Amino acid sequence: MRILLLEDDFNYRESVSEYLQVLGYEVDEAPDGQVACDKISKSFYHLLILDIKVPHISGHEVIKYAKDIGLQTPIMIMTSLVDINNLSVGYELGCNEYLKKPFELAELKFRVNELMRKYHGKDDKNLITIDDDSKLDTIKKQLHFKEKIIELSLKEFDLIECLLYHKNSFVGVETIRAEVWGDKEIDSADIRMHVLKIRQKTKPDFIVSSRGLGYKIDVK
Question: What is the DSSP letter of 202?
Answer without folding.
Answer: S
